[in-house]
Amino acid sequence: xxxxxxxxxxxxxxxxxxxxxxxxxxxxxxxxxxxxxxxxxxxxxxxxxxxxxxxxxxxxxxxxxxxxxxxxxxxxxxxxxxxxxxxxxxxxxxxxxxxxxxxxxxxxxxxxxxxxxxxxxxxxxxxxxxxxxxxxxxxxxxxxxxxxxxxxxxxxxxxxxxxxxxxxxxxxxxxxxxxxxxxxxxxxxxxxxxxxxxxxxxxxxxxxxxxxxxxxxxxxxxxxxxxxxxxxxxxxxxxxxxxxxxxxxxxxxxxxxxxxxxxxxxxxxxxxxxxxxxxxxxxxxxxxxxxxxxxx
Length: 296
Fold this sequence. Notes:
- It is a single chain.
- Helices cover about 65% and strands about 5% of the residues.
- It is mainly alpha-helical.
- It has a three-stranded antiparallel β-sheet with strand order 4-3-7. It has a two-stranded antiparallel sheet with strand order 1-2. Strands 5-6 form a two-stranded antiparallel sheet.
- Helix 1 (about 15-40) runs antiparallel to helix 2 (about 45-70).
- The N and C termini lie far apart (about 90 Å).
């Protein structure tokens, strides 16, 4: 018999919480990627890896928070712990591939298309691998056209997010991009869930391996959530991202318009990913500046 599928067991609580986690992961990831591009003295692989892990954890957390609200009324749902953890690894690794492509090769059309496709397929793989980890007294089937639509949404969302990561500099614009990214990722998830139908084997029998959603997902979600909080602390206490360097939000032509003698020495920023051997430019004496410009 066909099972009664309900993706909103707790009303709007799980969709809203899932959306917020997707936005948080996206916002942290975008800021980390921006940080890797701001200063040549920064350790770029570290910032890109932190950004990829933030986005991957945000997407994975969004998926399984949303799955807490998923139920089939005729049967209980359990999860395979190994496959659930594997889906987290897939999300982080594949997002990392896309992030490193645009972080090192730039945001050209070909690079964005490649990185967005790889990342989008990885997000879709994470979702369907997480679905494959479900254990219930029945068989899950999917509508092919709706699955295809969800994959297209994932690729478009990933491409847009990577483009924003290497194009947008300002904090508010990054925040807006993360909100749009949250909508796209959540839209992909619920589009994919609309493709699901369940054929229940029987109403009485059936035993299967796996842990219940409450016993597995809730404790497992703590790790990525704690990681996102720690990543937020790193981003919040990084001077270049929080205090801001006004020149980074200005067009390049405006930054170069200043004469070298008139440009003050930039403050020395430090963070966990900055090189300890980075050179510090000495402050120039006013007399030395006047000798260059011929003015006193």
